[in-house]
Design a protein that fits this description.
Elements lengths: L1 H13 L4 H12 L4 H4 L2 H16 L2 H26 L14 H13 L1 H7 L9 H7 L4 H31 L6 H24 L5 H19 L4 H12 L4 H12 L3 H17 L3 H25 L19 H18 L4 H24 L5 H22 L10 H25 L7
Helix pairs in contact: 1-4, 2-4, 2-5, 4-9, 5-8, 5-9, 6-7, 7-9, 10-11, 10-12, 11-18, 13-17, 14-15, 14-16, 14-19, 15-16, 15-18, 16-17, 16-18, 17-18
């Protein structure tokens, strides 16, 4: 397999004119029923994204090609299920591996639309769920809307890391960039791998371990941030290279969703709904995570007093470490992810957390794009929020696990909170999004 991957990568390096088509086809294959289970699409996508970031394609071109390819794979899978219905079980591959369909069918029947959103980030389920949706006659319009949304998060999660790696290899970065990046990446990888391992193993202390590791790594960032100078400058230069007038407006709109008043409003709405529906333990968890994150962020900013990048013509007066937008966004969306995953299998709980992290990541990255924060600022904000969310969850379920929210409560929370964020975005557009000055 490694030799085959090396041969494909070598050929595409020598023939970059085929790279765009390769990204489209690999993304389509990764999301295609049955085939997506057999082909190591995730590894291939990372490899071709690295090649694209090395100068062959822009970030927007790379994401657009993968998005269209993944969407086509979804539609073909849905059409296959809709055409064959129950006879699909007799198709080659499925006839000898009924377990491929059994798990996907169970998840779809149990979680419906949510299974398509969350299952997009679970390898064995990703190519099978659209086919199951077609087989069970999910309305086509509803499927397309869900697929459009799920594909957006999926393409960013699966293509952005590879493209960024390729771009970093291409740029003339400071001499100490890679050692610093390796140390930070190793710490984050250890945190994620250990947390995922403990969660999949259903270990009772998984949330305690995740909290401890997050806060320990956060402590390391605080102690070592003066030594991350080359990493910060290198990543900031990489991001600033992608600047464009149209993207500026979008990024300002995204960053406004992480402003203090926006996050305060949506956090208050979440806590109010939990209060009115008498979900006391969920309120204790969510309110505790959001409040402690906000207080800790303010205290740490005052303690470290780190100045912001000099990209802005009129720099903001407050300090930058950790990023308040990053910590607030991750605290809110991770709290939603935790509440959504209660009572579900470990794989789905982790997928909910990954899905919830995507909008928070967009808000955090917008701060680096706009030159308001250093990359280590937003990493520190994410670690602070993740550690305190995990700690709040651990304390909330000290004696008994946090129960799942009733469906009626969850389907009240999700539309209300997302609707409020949408209303804030609409208001920003109607008023005219005020750009930061550069």
């Amino acid at each position: 397999m490694s030799q085959w991957l090396a041969d494909v990568t070598l050929w595409l390096t020598a023939n970059p004119e085929w790279l765009g088509l390769a990204i489209f086809l690999i993304a389509c294959t990764e999301c295609l029923a049955i085939v997506g289970i057999l082909v190591p699409g995730t590894l291939l996508l990372f490899a071709v994204a690295v090649l694209a970031g090395n100068g062959a394609l822009t970030l927007s071109e790379t994401l657009a090609l993968a998005y269209c390819g993944g969407l086509l794979g979804d539609l073909l899978s849905y059409a296959t299920g809709r055409y064959f219905h129950q006879d699909i079980r007799r198709l080659p591959g499925l006839r000898h591996h009924p377990e491929w369909m059994a798990g996907a069918e169970l998840y779809f029947q149990r979680y419906g639309i949510a299974s398509l959103l969350v299952g997009r980030f679970i390898g064995p389920l990703r190519p099978m769920l659209p086919m199951i949706a077609g087989m069970l006659n999910m309305p086509f319009g509803r499927f397309v809307l869900v697929s459009l949304l799920a594909s957006t998060g999926w393409v960013v999660a699966y293509l952005l890391p590879g493209w960024t790696t390729g771009a970093a290899l291409r740029l003339p970065l400071p001499a100490g960039f890679w050692p610093q990046a390796a140390v930070l990446a190793a710490g984050l990888a250890a945190l994620l791998l250990l947390s995922v391992h403990d969660s999949l193993g259903e270990r009772r202390r998984a949330s305690w371990i995740a909290a401890g590791l997050s806060l320990l790594l956060l402590f390391g960032v605080f102690i070592g941030w003066p030594r991350l100078d080359q990493l910060d400058h290198g990543l900031l230069a990489l991001v600033q290279e992608q600047r464009s007038a149209s993207l500026d407006t979008l990024m300002v709109l995204i960053t406004r969703l992480g402003d203090f008043h926006s996050q305060l409003a949506v956090a208050a709405l979440l806590c109010l709904i939990l209060l009115l529906t008498r979900q006391w333990r969920a309120l204790l968890f969510g309110g505790g995570a959001l409040l402690t994150t906000a207080l800790a962020n303010g205290a740490l900013k005052a303690l470290f007093a780190r100045h912001r990048p000099d990209v802005l013509l009129e720099p903001l007066n407050s300090f930058s470490l950790p990023s308040g937008h990053s910590s607030a966004a991750f605290a809110f969306f991770l709290a939603l992810g935790v509440l959504a995953g209660r009572g579900q299998p470990a794989r789905l709980r982790l997928a909910w957390l990954l899905l919830a992290s995507l909008p928070a990541m967009a808000i955090a990255l917008s701060r680096v794009y706009l030159g308001v924060h250093w990359p280590s600022d937003i990493i520190a904000g994410a670690l602070l929020a993740g550690g305190l969310c995990a700690l709040s969850l651990s304390l909330t379920q000290w004696s008994t696990p946090l129960p799942a929210l009733p469906a009626r409560v969850w389907w009240l929370i999700l539309p209300a909170c997302l609707g409020l964020l949408g209303a804030i975005a609409t208001w920003q557009l109607s008023e005219g999004v005020l750009l930061y000055r550069y």
